[in-house]
Amino acid sequence: MALNLFGKKEDEAPESIFTDRTYMSVAAKTNACITLAKQQPGTLFICWFNETLKKLKAAFVANGIDEMTVIDARQMHSGMLNNKTAVFAEHYPLHEKEIALVEHWPLQKIIVYSSMDEPLFKHLGSEKMIPLMKLLGMKEDEVIEHSFVSKSIIKGQAKIAAMVSLEQPANSQEEWLEKNLKNYDS
Predict the structure, then answer these.
(1) Where are the domains of the chain?
(2) Residue 4's beta-bridge partner residues?
(3) Does pLDDT of 145 surpass 90?
(4) Cα 182 → chain centroid
(5) What three-state secondary structure class fits 180?
(6) Global pTM exceeds 0.70
(7) Helix (H) / strand (E) containing 44
(8) Do the beta carbons of residue 158 and residue 124 sit within 8 Å?
């Protein structure tokens, strides 16, 4: 533990296996997933929630992309990764659950596509950031990708985990937050 001029320096958190690509809207995120699927057909898009799974599959079908590349996280295992790239189409509210799924995967980095208008991000205060980003000239289809974003998401997930005593399953992020957080306000 190092000291600096202003007191103790916190120990650095280990580098996250996840690289976040965050968009302002679900529509922009979905378009980015479609573009990636067309450019890299060997990509598997993993969804934590059934609602996301259905919507992404429908978007892929509408764009002539094989819907079988969209996978339910509960059915995902490392054997499915042969000659494939895994990409998450959303975050799960609990970071520990994300880590438990990928801990035996032979991957160094896993990309997670998210949007600031998803319920998880709204719960973490993204509604205040979107107008500021637009004011600064950021376009809806521009991606935010930085280790600070990933670290902030992990910190937010830790705060959520501290509020959950007994996890209840759900079909969407919003339903999960409603069922598992007492003070959740959509």
Answers:
(1) 16-55+98-186
(2) 7
(3) yes
(4) 22
(5) helix
(6) yes
(7) strand 43-47
(8) no
